[in-house]
Structure prediction request, 317 residues.
Amino acid sequence: MQRIVFMGTPEFSVPSLKILLEACYEILAVVTPPDRPAGRGRKLKACPVKEFAVENELPVLQPEKLRDPEFIDALRKLNPDIIVVVAFRMLPEVVWQLPKKGTFNLHSSLLPDYRGAAPMNHAIINGEKETGVTTFLLDHEIDTGKILFREKVAISDDMNVGDLHDILMIKGAELVLKTVSALESGDVNPVDQNTMENPQTLHPAPKFTKEDIKIDWRKKATEVINFVRGLSPYPTAFTHLISPDQESHILKVYKITRTEKSAPTPGVIDSDGKSFLHIATGDKFVSLESLQLAGKKRMNISDFLRGFSIDPDWKMQ
Prediction:
């Protein structure tokens, strides 16, 4: 049975660690980031992977720097057969070259497409009907190593990135187990990513900045809907609600749906003040269904309109 060092951080990583533990693989250590201050009291908080590791009495390593000689020495002494990486940091070569049978990463796209930090978000924003998970051997450039296995997943029209995250989290764990088993038996045929796709057809998936997640109402309704889906529930698309006297209110938008009503100038508002709030896009009106006013809780549109009076002189910007 293979001896494994597991590296991960968020909730997405936990099922992959859990499935390896349940399969009775020997988890030599779990590597996670140092605990960070969180919440109003700024108390130190462990990440989800560490919480799971502690609950299951697994050894935990939390290096501040992955090139720290003490950390490298600790890994060498553990002498793992495989290092499994799921939603962690970029590893230095001295780390990923250490295991006998290699270090592999789980990525939430069908590599080589959507390399980067936010592949699930960008796939939905771009209107993709299919994505998936990939395991690949680590190499010098991020997300470019030889592919071991891929698993496809359909993206439905009503799926947001939170839904996709939960599906790929489980599919990814299953693929991690399959990959470890294949590396153990030697039944692998790594494929060079450069032989798989035309580089001109590939989509990047970079991390979002604040300005990247602002809604552009000039785009067509389908594009605006996909944009909101691809950022819901996190990091969440936002817009500015502008009053007639030019007072600006920031709204986070979690869900919108399409109407068949043709739209005038983008950003124009149509509402009965009670049950619906329609916003003009570049072609059709869309209907806001779930949103959050800055400093308030998330709510549906009827609850929002009960506490916030809007007339047609307001606009989205």
In short: The longest strand covers residues 248-262. The chain has two domains: 3-201, 211-316. The CA atoms of residues 34 and 64 lie 6 Å apart. Residues 161-185 form the longest helix (25 residues).
